[in-house]
Design brief:
Elements lengths: L1 E6 L7 H13 L3 E5 L11 E3 L7 H13 L5 E6 L1 H12 L7 E6 L9 E3 L10 E12 L2 E6 L2 E5 L1 E6 L2 E6 H7 L15 E4 L2 E3 L8 E6 L24 E6 L19 E6 L4 E5 L6 E4 L2 E3 L5 E13 L7 E2 L1
Parallel strand pairs: 1-2, 1-4, 2-3, 4-5, 5-6
Antiparallel strand pairs: 7-8, 7-20, 7-21, 9-14, 9-18, 10-11, 12-13, 12-17, 14-15, 15-16, 17-20, 18-19
């Protein structure tokens, strides 16, 4: 089998090296290839490809994916966290080539899935269970930004790891200058207006500190009324949800009251046939997609797309085998 391997070598404070060592037995007997700078140094004996030079980390990931796709792989093996997997999957979907099956092995600090689903390297690449994976396409006034396989957060901060500790940091400092600048999230991202299919959705929050949209396909909320509208999501046409919150949810900034202080929130469910638009955010608000900060210009549009990829799944979540 033709197997492409893409690795974030800095993932998990060195865990990527251990994962790659564990992958070597599974790669034996397959026609495997990787890319210099994205796995070649950690996978001795695996054919190493050269990708064109590019400015910026995201562009380098895109070039690496294109180099691997030129060999028409049947399977793309990813080692890293959710953010790295999202960069790679977005590049794969935009490369214009047949999309191989994905196997994601946890090597980062955030491994929620659905792409990074295996906690340890598989003993074999044969007989793995796969499931179709959808995503939210996130666009602004300039067009496509990225696909969100977990969630997109409209705010001014994101979560990252500094010296082994998870902190809240400035999204703009990262995408503008490549700097990690710890900071607290803003209390109000602006007079957010929500439309679904061009029709204004009435909201009543006094302010919005974060807007979060997430896919629902991997979640189980049936009968759990405490989750609000999400308890209606299973076995329904709803595939994604939007949450408006008057306090930041995705944050580790100090809060003297912690979770004892009530939070006001509003939820909106939507289907793959719906387009959700958010307007009114301040200029300093970024789109943080699967943990990766992106610059945003103007209105943000969200649309769910189903069955974009086939990804290996965790044991116990079997839907079908390939």
């Amino acid at each position: 089998m033709r197997v492409a391997v893409l690795v974030n070598p800095s993932a998990g404070g060195g865990r990527a090296a251990a994962v790659c060592a564990g992958l070597m037995p599974a790669l034996a007997g397959h026609e495997a290839a990787t890319v210099r700078g994205f796995g070649a140094e950690l996978l001795p004996g695996v054919r190493a490809l050269e990708a064109p030079q590019a400015a910026g980390y995201v562009a380098r990931v895109q070039q690496a994916v294109r180099a691997l796709c030129a060999g028409a792989p049947e399977l793309l093996l990813l080692v890293g966290g959710d953010g790295f997997a999202a960069y790679a999957a977005d590049a794969l979907l935009g490369a214009g080539c047949p999309v191989p099956r994905l196997v994601g092995v946890a090597g980062g600090t955030a491994n929620v899935g659905p792409i990074i689903a295996l906690a340890e390297p598989p003993a074999s690449l044969e007989g793995l269970s796969y499931r179709p994976v959808g995503a939210l396409e996130v666009c602004d006034e300039d067009g496509h930004i990225a696909y969100a396989f977990n969630d997109v957060v409209l705010g001014d901060t994101y979560l990252t790891t500094v010296d082994g500790r998870t902190v809240t940091a400035s999204a703009e400092a990262l995408w503008r200058d490549g700097r990690t600048q710890p900071c607290a999230p803003m209390a109000d991202i602006g007079p957010v207006a929500v439309e679904i299919n061009g029709r204004r959705a009435r909201t009543r929050l006094p302010r919005v500190a974060q807007a979060v949209a997430s896919t629902l396909e991997r979640d189980r909320f049936y009968g759990r009324a405490v989750t609000g509208l999400l308890c209606f999501a299973p076995d329904s046409p709803y595939r994604a949800a939007l949450l408006l919150s008057e306090r930041a949810i995705v944050s580790l900034a100090d809060d003297p009251l912690g979770f004892e202080r009530p939070a006001l929130m509003e939820q909106l469910l939507f289907t793959g046939a719906d387009t959700v638009t958010l307007a009114g955010c301040e200029d300093g608000v970024s789109a943080v997609i699967d943990g990766n900060p992106y610059r945003r210009r103007g209105r943000v549009r969200l649309r769910y797309h189903e069955r974009l990829l086939l990804a290996a799944e965790r044991e116990g979540e079997t839907t079908w085998k390939c």
